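Worked example

This section walks through a single chain of length 335. The input is the sequence exactly as stored; nothing has been trimmed or padded.
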Amino acid sequence: MAAHLTGRDAPEISIVIPTMGRASLLREMLGALSRQSYDLGHVEVIVVQDGPDADTRSLLDIMRADAAWTLVNVERPRRGRAAARNAGIARACGRIIVMLDDDIIASPGLLAEHARHHAGSANIVVTGNVPVERLAEEPAHHRAVRQYWETQLSRRTAAGHRPAFTDFTTGNASISRLRLLEAGGFDEAFVEYGREDYELGYRLQRAGLRFVYEARALGTHRYHKDPLEWLRQSRTMGRADVLFARKHPELVNEIMALVPFPRVPWLPWAVQLSERATLGLNVGGGKLWGVAATFAQGAHYWQGVREEVRDPIELRRLVAARVAARARPTPAATA
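Given that input, the structure is written out below as C-alpha cells.
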C-alpha cells in the first residue's frame, strides 16, 4: 500500500475506476470528469486495470500529462471487480472515495453533489443517479435494461422508500474512505459479475451507515453489452447469489427474490433455440422476444446456481427460498 498523504497535500476525493480492456469507453468517461464544477485540484483519479491492457496504459500515459488531477494507473492480474476496487481503495489518499464505472459519463455537478453530502458527516453512503442512455434506434435488450433502471431510480425517490442494500450500486456511489476500510471493503470471493456491491451494501447498512440517494449526482450509463452477453451474465449472477446466500444465510429469502427468472432445466438445445430467437428478434422486441429472453436468462441463472451449490441440500434451501419469495418478487438486476 502506498503511503497516504496528509494535510494540504492530500486530495479530498479519490475516484476509483476499475476497467478491463475498454480504453475507448474510459477515454470518454475521463473526458467528462475533466469538466467537473468541483475543484479538480482536490481530486485524484485511480484507474485500476483488472488485467493489464496496452491501449489503456497508453491512454493514461497521454492523459496524465495534461490532467487537472493526480492520475494513478494501477495494473494487476485479472481477479474481478471486487479485488480491483479494493486495490484502488488501498492506493487512495482522499477522505472520500467516489466509485465510478468506466462507462459512466459524469454530469458537471456529479463530484460537487457527492462532496456536499459528505461535508457534514462521515457516516453516510451517497448513491448517485445512473440512468441508461436512451438510443435513437434501441435494441430490445437495451430497452429492457434502460426501463429496469428507470424503475429502480424511481423507486429510490418514491415517498416512503426505505433504503436497502440493493440501493448500493457502485457505478456511481461515494463513502468515507475510513468507513469503507472499517467495513473491510469488497469481498474478493466475488470474482465474476454480480452481487459484490449488494453484499458490501448489506454490511455497510449493518454497520449503521445511512444511505442517501442524490439524483443531481448524475452519471449517464453508456450501456454497451451485446444481447448474448446480457443473456449469459445471468449464469454468473446465479453463482454469485449462491455465494451471497452462503455468506449471509439470514438474507436468503431477500437474495432469492432479486431475480424473477423461472426455474427451468438446463436443456442445451432449448437454450440455444431461445438465444437464437432473442438475437433474431432483438431489433423490434415484442412478446415472443420476451418469452425467449426470459427462458434463456432463467436457464442460465439456475444452471449457475446448480454449478455453485455444494450439495443437494443447499440447492433445496435456495429453491425453497425462491418459492417463498415469489409472493413478493423484485425486478431482475439486468444491467
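What to look for: The longest strand covers residues 210-221.
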